[in-house]
Each structure stands twice: as structure tokens, then as C-alpha cells.
Write a sequence for this structure.
């Protein structure tokens, strides 16, 4: 026995032979390894196998994880046992945030891991790891109780290798809270970078539809004394210099004036007939004569090079 | 869909002139096409004068692009009515609705059980039921973009209308669904969606006041509080949520909330081929997968016709598996029911022990403990392995009867169980029928209605068994029904094992028939699953995948009775009343 340091309390003789020296890591990890408390929390089919794993035949309490608790505050282990739907992932993330650290997540079965057979479903999240950090994945649909036990033991081995110096939850900067997703027209994350990304893609998509759009003939009103054709622009702003509106039955053409620009989502009406007037900038006066056949006619819109851009038929009276 | 017969003497032309527009002959029989504004009158006639007291199935079908259909009759609402006193086949009503603003009157005034099914049709198809007291989304959330079961609504991972996808079959150079989707994950936002300015639409959730008392119970002054139970709650058997309003400890109002496990079974089912749906049915009511297989196989075989009639041996194997499943289900249900009562885990441990032995049998015959995927159209997929019959024989003749005696000894006479259960969750026979309840829930209210007897399917007409019913109308009766039904299942099993013939296990035509193409038509096939009436409504357009694939989920529809049963009881009783309905969320939400 070594010399006692100066000022240290004397250790009685009978205790000296009962003291074990070990590292903090070992005692800490052993304690946590064999007291994993899973949450009583079932999602779908896999939950039944989880219950059975706790029952008499498989009896997971043999491995030191018997005490299932329904409150997330008392649990270390969150078992995602089943299909994670968009509607359910919101409470799951909340539950995870409510658990005290250290906390572990086991993704049980094909659905929790990657969406499984239901991946293509519109309400299904393709894997819980899109939202939560997962420690162990257990394959199967559903995994047998043996497979689940193996998953637990894998997790225990992982815990045994951890060190208090390297685990994230003792670092000062660590918060561990996962942002809770929001249910909108579809699920979206409330992370700022996610919001930015959604916006960017949305703008790109709008630009793409915009670029594919063009001025088209939207309506024909050819039966009255003021007959007019409505041309609407679903694309980008278009200089319509030299564009022509052509009447199929009468073989007449109206040419747009030089410098005429049709803005996005704007429309222009081309009037003809005895009562035709052009009151606003988006009205163009063709002629005071009737240009369209009341028994039915077709209007064609040609660009400056004479290519057909849009065509529209009216059945007549 | 055959041509409507234009008969001068349409039904009800004297009583309700103009109510029936046409009579449609179909594979099973006939269905009446009813004018939507006369629907309630016809339903009243059916209920009051023809004895069709059970509105079993109510669903919508989208016929967009179906041959012979136009925008004027794009949607169709299908009703299946049954008589619990006479038994026999259904009365089928259909109402056709146009593409723009599809709406028709609710049937809740005649059959209050239409409630949840109408809400589902509204949620998934956007069909409005005029006069429905709370027509809100039920499986999806408020603010969801569109009505997903419509044919022109595509999911984010959409690849093609039907499987097998060209990208995977027969060569298989598929692209990840995530890569095809512009957002990189399973989401689809409408054009112009901005996550920062988006706000949840506010929907009024009225918690209806069912009782008249106003904050004063006895001498104590109490306050009304609203308590949320679920979706993470140990008593809700999965991800079910109840919002209860309490006066002291008494529940004054209850609002069920579901959809937390809505995994789009029906939409995926329309993309799948008929056979591909078989393993999906396993995951409906995942405790009794064999029963789901059986119901689906029966429905598809009705569509396919005589050539796919199962062989004798297959019929017996199906009955054996279905009855073993019933025992599995009831054991599990009774076990978890005692969990809910507060006897935490011990009764469940006892109950699950025999379940494991039955699962061993399932595993050895089908390869999987829970998701058996055992039945095929025209038979079953595999014959029994060596030694299976001996094990089953021992189980059915010795172990299970002894086990049931033991369970009964522990549980049935128990003083605490009686105190907690008798008189709790009262549901009269008339209410149970009106609310479309089936299965042990209905038989626990004293209505001896069992489809195995009322409209025998498979070979159930050959077996000697009793239809169990208890008329206590409470939680205790439902529990007793389950206990006694296990005994009846053992009886059926004993007979079936004795009579099991040798022979092929699949109809000759069905051998190797992976892609079946049933003739055009619609069909409703149903069985008495452990939880109640499990039905499949299928519409075929002659292709290899169903046009409409609808599951009539018994535990979802039995939830109609939850609020009426719970209100007025203590909050602790709400838990056991829910436990006695025996819900499985895979089937409730699908």
C-alpha cells in the first residue's frame, strides 16, 4: 500500500481491500449500458414485435433495459418502431427534444429506416434519419425480436466505447434540440437554411414555367358589334413587334405596332367591328369592319418570323 | 361496369318516383344508381321497411378517364347496406356526382355511423356531404394541398400510373425517387408557396357538449378542462389521439383525432398490381395478417370468377389460418385490455405466451411471424411443412383449451375486473347498429351478427360453431365475447384439422398467375375478421392493377361509437373503453 498523501483522510484497514480503481468512463458507461430505459412508444407493426421482445419468450430485461417508461423525460432510448408519417414526425421530434441527454435513437424496421414498403406514400417520411440522429438501424419488416435484441446489444457496445470527454452533450456549444417541422401544404422544416432552399427551388420552378410560357389566345368574343380577341401572356415579357393575328375564315391579318410589349400575366384585346374602340393601353383597334365569321372561326397568332404561336377556335353561334 | 339497363319498371318508381335512375347489373348482383337529392329518402326506405339496418361500407370512387364516364359523372359514392336480422347479401346504392363541386346530402340523419366514412371521403376525394355536422379532414391535416385519392393528384414520388414501373422491370436501372423529385425528398409544394409567410388555416374544432351539467359536479365546484391524450400515450394502442373535455374526472366531450399512421395504403394499392397488394394487406391490421389476406383474396376471386375458385385443401388451410389468427388477435386484445385496466403487463405476458406458439406455426408455413403474405388468388402459397399438423393438433386439442381455462379462471371472475368493467361504456344494440359497429363490439351489445353465419364465405357453412353474443352492452360483455370466441375458434379448428383433405393447394389456372387481369366491374368482398367486418371494395377496369382499392376497416368504423360511449364516464374509463374497441392503427389510418 502506498504512502498516504499529506492531509488525506485515513482509510480503514477493512475497506482498503474492497476498493476498486477504475476510470470514470468505465463506470459511467457500464451504468448507462445496463440501464437503458426505452420509451413506451409504438408507431406501427414493429411496436408489436417490440412488446413481444419485452415479453416472456425473448425477455429483453435480461440485457438491462427492462424499464419502459411512457414519459420522454424518464427515457434514454427512443425506438422508432414503424412507419413515420408526416403528421407523426412533428410529435416525434418534440418527444426527442423532451428526452434528457444522453439519448439514443434506434430505427426499427424498414419503414423507420427508409420509408420501407410505404416509401412512395404521400404522407410518409422516407426515414426518420431525415429528422433525428439515429444510433442503430435494425433491418426487417418487421424485425424479429431476435433482430431487435441484436440491435439493442449493438447499441450497448456503442455506448461502452463512448468517453465523457468526446460525447457531444457535455460540450458548451451543444444544444441538441432538433427544429420541429411544420405541416403546411406539405411538411417543411423550420430551419432557416431549409426555408432558403425551398424558396430558391420555388423561384427556379416559377422561372422555368415562366420561360416555357408564351403569349396565347385565351378568349374569342366574335358575335357582337364589338368583337375582340384576348391574348394573354403566361411567359416572360414579350416584344410583339411584327407579330400578327390572323383570322382563319377571312384570311385577314392584324399586325401589332412596333415597340408593343406584352408584360407577364398581362393581356391585350384586339378589337374589330362597328362599335370597336381602344379605350385603354391594353386594347388594340384593328378595324371598324367585322373580321370574324359568326358561324365559327379560327384565330392564329404568328410571331415576327411567321411561326404559329397559338391557335384558338370559336364554334360560332 | 356493364351498360345500365333502361327498364321502365325501376325499383321504387311508385314510392319515390325519380329516385332510382338506373339499375346496374354487376358481377355480384345489381346496384341502384340513385339521384343524390333522393338518397336520404331511399336510405330511409331501406332501413325502415326493408330491414337493412347496417350501413356497412361507404366510399367514393374517382372515374376520371374511365371508359364511358364523363365530367358529369366523374365521382361515385357507393353505399353497401346489410340486414343483420336476415343476413345475406348487400343492397348497393350508388350516387354519381359531377366534377365541379361534388356534393350530396349526408346520410347521418338515417345512419349516424356514416360519420367517419363521410369525413374520410371528404378528406381524400373532396366530396362535400351537405348537412354533416363537422365535415373536416380526418386522416390528413388542415391545410394539406389537395385531395390525394383523386386520379389527377400525384404524390411527390410519382413515377407512373401503375406498376411494374418501366424503370425497374424487366431491366432495372431505376433512379432514386429522391433524385426525380425537385425538392429532393418526399414533398411537393404548390407553386408560389413561401414557407415563411405560410400560416396554418384556423379550423374550429367544436368539442360538442354531450351532457348538460355546467361545471358543478355534486358539492364540489369544478372547472372544465381540455386534456389531450396521444398520439404518444401508453393507453391509445399506437398513435391514436383523443381530445377530451373533463368536468372534474368526468368526460363531457371527446374528439378523436387520427391519421398519424396514414401511410396511403389505398393510393399505393391503386398503383400496385393485384398480387402486389397482398403483402400490403398484412400491414393493415398487423396483429391478424392472415385474416386480411383472406378478405382480399376473397374479394379478388369474386372479380376473377370461377376459374380462380380455391381448391378444397386451400379452403381448409385458409380457415385454419384465419381461426388461428382470431385466437392470436383476441389473446393480444385481452392482454392489452388488462394493461389498460391497470394490471400492467402481467396478463399480457400470459396472453402472449400462446400467441408465440401460433406465430411459430405461421412462420414455419409462410416464412414470417407476423407478415404472413400467405394467401394467393385461387389458393395459398405453400403447403404445410412436415410436422406442422402434429404441432397444430397438440396446440388445438390440448394446449389452447387448457390455456383458455386458465385465462378464464384468472380473469373472468375477478372482482376488480367486474368492478371496473360492468356497466362501463354502455352501447345499446340499436345504437351499435346505427353507428355501423361490427364484430365483438356489436356482439357485445347483444346482436348475434357474425358474417361467418350471416353470409358464409369460404367453407364456414360446413362447421359447427356458435355465434357468441352477450347482451351486457358494456366493456365486460365485449371482453367476454372475445374470450368465448376463442373457444369457438378452437372448435372450428378441431373440425377443420379433422376434415383437412389432401390435394393441390392452388387452383390449376392460378398456378404461376402473377399478373391477373380481372374483367371490368366492381365487387365488395367481406369477412368476419377478429375486429369486425373487414371488406375490400374493388373496381377493375380490366387492367392489371385495381382502379379503386378500398379497405373497409372495422376498427376505424367501430370508432364511431367511441365518443357516445365515453361521454359521461370517468377519464380512466375512457382508456378501457378504447381498449375494448380493440383498434389497430394500421387499419384505422391505413
Amino acid at each position: 500500500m502506498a504512502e498516504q498523501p499529506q492531509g488525506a483522510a485515513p482509510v480503514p484497514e477493512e475497506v482498503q481491500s474492497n476498493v476498486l480503481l477504475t476510470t470514470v468512463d468505465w463506470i459511467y458507461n457500464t451504468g448507462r449500458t445496463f440501464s437503458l430505459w426505452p420509451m413506451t412508444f409504438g408507431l406501427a407493426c414493429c411496436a408489436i414485435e417490440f412488446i413481444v421482445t419485452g415479453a416472456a419468450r425473448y425477455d429483453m430485461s435480461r440485457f438491462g433495459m427492462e424499464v419502459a417508461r411512457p414519459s420522454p423525460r424518464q427515457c434514454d432510448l427512443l425506438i422508432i418502431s414503424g412507419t413515420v408519417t408526416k403528421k407523426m414526425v412533428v410529435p416525434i421530434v418534440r418527444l426527442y427534444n423532451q428526452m434528457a441527454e444522453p439519448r439514443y435513437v434506434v430505427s426499427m424496421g424498414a419503414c423507420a429506416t427508409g420509408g420501407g414498403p410505404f416509401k412512395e406514400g404521400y404522407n410518409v417520411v422516407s426515414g426518420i434519419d431525415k429528422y433525428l440522429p439515429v444510433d442503430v438501424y435494425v433491418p426487417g419488416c418487421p424485425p424479429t425480436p431476435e433482430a431487435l435484441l441484436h440491435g439493442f446489444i449493438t447499441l450497448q457496445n456503442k455506448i461502452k466505447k463512448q468517453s465523457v470527454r468526446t460525447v457531444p452533450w457535455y460540450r458548451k456549444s451543444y444544444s441538441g434540440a432538433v427544429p420541429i417541422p411544420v405541416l403546411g401544404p406539405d411538411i417543411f422544416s423550420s430551419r432557416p437554411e431549409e426555408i432558403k432552399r425551398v424558396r430558391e427551388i420555388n423561384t427556379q420552378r416559377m422561372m422555368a414555367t415562366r420561360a416555357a410560357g408564351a403569349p396565347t389566345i385565351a378568349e374569342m368574343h366574335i358575335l357582337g358589334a364589338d368583337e375582340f380577341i384576348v391574348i394573354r401572356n403566361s411567359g416572360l415579357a414579350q416584344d410583339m413587334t411584327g407579330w400578327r393575328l390572323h383570322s382563319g375564315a377571312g384570311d385577314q391579318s392584324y399586325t401589332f405596332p412596333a415597340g408593343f410589349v406584352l408584360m407577364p400575366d398581362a393581356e391585350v384585346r384586339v378589337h374589330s367591328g362597328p362599335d370597336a374602340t381602344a379605350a385603354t393601353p391594353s386594347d388594340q383597334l384593328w378595324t371598324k369592319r367585322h373580321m370574324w365569321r359568326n358561324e365559327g372561326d379560327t384565330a392564329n397568332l404568328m410571331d415576327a418570323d411567321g411561326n404559329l404561336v397559338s391557335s384558338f377556335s370559336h364554334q360560332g353561334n | 361496369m356493364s351498360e345500365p339497363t333502361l327498364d321502365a319498371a325501376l325499383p321504387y318508381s311508385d314510392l319515390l318516383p325519380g329516385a332510382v335512375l338506373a339499375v346496374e347489373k354487376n358481377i355480384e348482383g345489381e346496384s341502384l344508381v340513385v339521384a343524390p337529392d333522393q338518397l336520404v329518402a331511399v336510405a330511409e326506405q331501406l332501413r325502415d321497411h326493408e330491414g337493412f339496418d347496417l350501413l356497412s361500407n361507404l366510399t367514393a370512387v374517382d372515374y376520371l378517364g374511365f371508359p364511358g364516364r364523363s365530367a358529369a359523372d366523374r365521382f361515385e359514392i357507393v353505399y353497401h347496406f346489410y340486414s343483420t336480422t336476415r343476413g345475406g347479401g348487400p343492397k348497393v346504392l350508388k350516387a354519381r356526382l359531377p366534377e365541379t363541386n361534388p356534393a350530396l346530402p349526408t346520410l347521418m340523419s338515417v345512419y349516424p355511423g356514416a360519420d367517419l366514412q363521410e369525413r374520410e371521403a371528404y378528406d381524400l376525394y373532396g366530396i362535400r356531404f351537405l348537412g354533416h355536422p363537422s365535415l373536416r379532414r380526418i386522416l390528413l391535416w388542415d391545410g394539406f394541398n389537395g385531395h390525394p385519392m383523386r386520379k389527377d393528384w400525384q404524390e411527390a414520388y410519382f413515377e407512373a400510373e401503375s406498376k411494374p414501373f418501366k424503370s425497374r422491370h424487366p431491366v432495372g436501372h431505376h433512379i432514386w425517387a429522391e433524385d426525380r423529385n425537385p425538392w429532393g425528398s418526399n414533398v411537393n409544394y404548390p407553386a408560389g408557396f413561401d414557407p415563411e409567410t405560410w400560416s396554418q388555416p384556423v379550423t374550429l374544432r367544436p368539442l360538442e357538449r354531450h351532457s348538460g351539467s355546467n361545471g358543478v359536479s355534486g358539492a364540489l365546484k369544478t372547472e372544465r378542462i381540455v386534456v389531450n391524450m396521444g398520439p404518444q400515450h401508453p393507453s391509445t394502442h399506437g398513435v391514436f389521439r383523443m381530445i377530451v373535455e373533463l368536468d372534474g374526472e368526468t368526460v363531457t366531450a371527446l374528439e378523436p383525432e387520427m391519421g398519424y399512421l396514414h401511410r396511403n395504403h389505398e393510393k399505393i394499392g391503386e398503383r400496385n398490381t393485384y398480387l402486389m397488394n397482398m403483402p400490403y394487406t398484412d400491414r393493415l391490421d398487423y396483429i391478424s395478417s392472415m385474416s386480411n389476406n383472406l378478405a382480399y383474396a376473397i374479394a379478388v376471386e369474386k372479380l376473377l370468377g370461377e376459374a380462380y375458385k380455391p381448391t378444397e385443401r386451400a379452403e381448409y388451410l385458409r380457415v385454419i389460418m384465419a381461426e388461428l389468427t382470431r385466437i392470436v388477435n383476441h389473446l393480444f386484445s385481452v392482454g392489452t385490455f388488462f394493461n389498460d385496466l391497470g394490471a400492467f403487463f402481467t396478463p399480457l405476458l400470459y396472453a402472449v405466451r400462446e400467441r408465440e406458439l401460433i406465430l411459430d406455426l405461421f412462420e414455419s408455413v409462410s416464412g414470417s411471424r407476423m407478415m404472413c403474405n400467405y394467401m394467393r388468388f385461387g389458393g395459398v402459397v405453400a403447403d404445410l411443412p412436415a410436422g406442422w399438423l402434429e404441432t397444430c393438433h397438440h396446440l388445438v386439442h390440448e394446449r389452447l383449451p387448457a390455456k383458455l381455462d386458465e385465462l378464464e379462471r384468472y380473469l373472468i371472475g375477478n372482482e376488480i375486473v367486474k368492478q371496473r368493467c360492468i356497466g362501463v361504456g354502455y352501447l345499446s344494440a340499436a345504437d351499435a347498429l346505427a353507428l355501423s359497429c361490427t364484430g365483438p363490439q356489436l356482439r357485445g351489445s347483444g346482436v348475434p351478427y357474425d358474417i361467418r353465419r350471416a353470409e358464409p364465405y369460404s367453407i364456414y357453412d360446413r362447421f359447427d360453431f356458435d355465434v357468441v353474443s352477450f347482451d351486457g352492452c358494456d366493456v365486460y360483455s365485449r371482453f367476454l365475447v372475445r374470450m368465448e370466441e376463442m373457444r369457438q375458434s378452437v372448435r372450428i379448428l378441431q373440425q377443420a384439422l379433422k376434415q383437412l383433405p389432401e390435394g393441390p393447394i392452388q387452383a390449376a389456372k392460378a398456378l404461376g398467375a402473377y399478373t391477373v387481369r380481372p374483367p371490368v366491374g366492381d365487387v365488395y368482398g367481406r369477412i368476419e375478421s377478429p375486429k369486425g367486418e373487414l371488406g375490400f371494395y374493388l373496381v377493375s377496369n380490366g387492367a392489371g392493377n385495381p382502379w379503386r382499392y378500398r379497405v373497409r376497416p372495422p376498427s376505424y368504423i367501430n370508432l364511431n361509437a367511441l365518443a357516445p360511449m365515453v361521454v359521461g364516464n370517468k377519464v380512466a374509463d375512457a382508456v378501457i373503453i378504447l381498449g375494448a374497441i380493440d383498434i389497430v392503427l394500421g387499419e384505422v389510418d391505413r
